[in-house]
Amino acid sequence: MRLQVADIRALIAAGIDGIAISAVKKGWIALRIGKELKEWGKPVVAFDSPLDTDIAQVYIGTHNYLLGKALGEKVNRLKPEGGSFCIQTERPDSPNHNDRIRGIMDGLIKDSDDALKWHNAFGCPIEHYGDFDRAIKQMVRTLTTFKVDTFISTGGGPQFMPKLYRSAISPYQAAIRAGEIIIASIDTIPVQLAYLSEGTSTINVGQRPYQMGKWTATMLKMLTDDEVVPMVINTGLTYCTKENANNCTH
Fold first, then answer.
1. Is the separation of the CB atoms in 48 and 212 below 8 Å?
2. Exposure string (b/e) for 99-117, b if CB count within 10 Å is 16 or more?
């Protein structure tokens, strides 16, 4: 988050006419350079991770709570008998990942019956801090040491290192295909869809990053032209399983 603030200051000093920001840490930009951004007076757009509304004129991206809730609900339907679960997240001070965790929990445990059948593994949620090798090791440890049968990631996490992920998950492939182990993740990039087809993952609920980028550029242009823009643009979700992995993001 310190490097992000330094980069924003450098861009402003270089004379840019507008900026789109995905905040690394909640509240950090507002605390460190919020006053500078407001006094700068040029278009500021937040995407993927929201900023304070007095800094950014519009937020473009996923409703992170609903993203998590959609994943939690899908897992609950896939495993109606419940089981033990662990949520893996990126970092404890990430606003969008924390909203996803809340959503996952509310989607997974809707009532007292769900609370009785689902058991959160000791020490979870766990954080990998953007270290995907660490994320893979954490996943394996929850499956082996803690015997978790449902592993839920608030992002791509371990799935972003294909060779290591496939090697680590291969001992559990039969159990995943049989529905005995659930691997549920957020994001639907091509390699994650390949995992679904292979049977090394169960379900992915994705954002629409292309739409985020397209709307971000559009909003910067509209703000530059002094046009009225909405405060929030929700870019929607995609739901992917083995059955629709070939066309779920279309």
1. yes
2. bbbebbbbbbbeeeebeee
- Is 189 within 8 Å of 156 (Cβ atoms)? yes
CATH homologous superfamily for 64-206?
A: Response regulator (3.40.50.2300)
- Residue 181 · residue 199 · CB < 8 Å: no
Give a three-class secondary structure readout of 161-173.
CHHHHHHHHHHHH
pLDDT band at 96; cut points 50, 70, 90 = confident
CATH of domain 2-63+208-235: 3.40.50.2300
28-55 mean pLDDT: 93
CA distances 170 to 150, 163, 165, 167, 178, Å, are 16, 11, 8, 5, 14
Query: Is residue 185 a contact partner of residue 156, using CB atoms and an 8 Å limit?
Result: yes
Which regions of the chain does DSSP assign to beta strands (E)?
19-21, 44-47, 58-61, 83-89, 118-120, 126-127, 150-153, 182-186, 203-206, 232-234, 238-241
- 151-200 residue pLDDT tens: 999 999 999 999 999 999 999 999 999 999 999 999 999 999 999 999 99
> Helix 162-169 vs helix 132-144: angle between axes, to the nearest 10 degrees?
10
> Is beta strand 118-120 parallel, antiparallel or unpaired with respect to 83-89?
parallel
**Residue 55 Cα to chain centre, angstroms:** 23
Contact 247, 70 (CB under 8 A): no
The pTM assigned to this predicted structure is 0.83
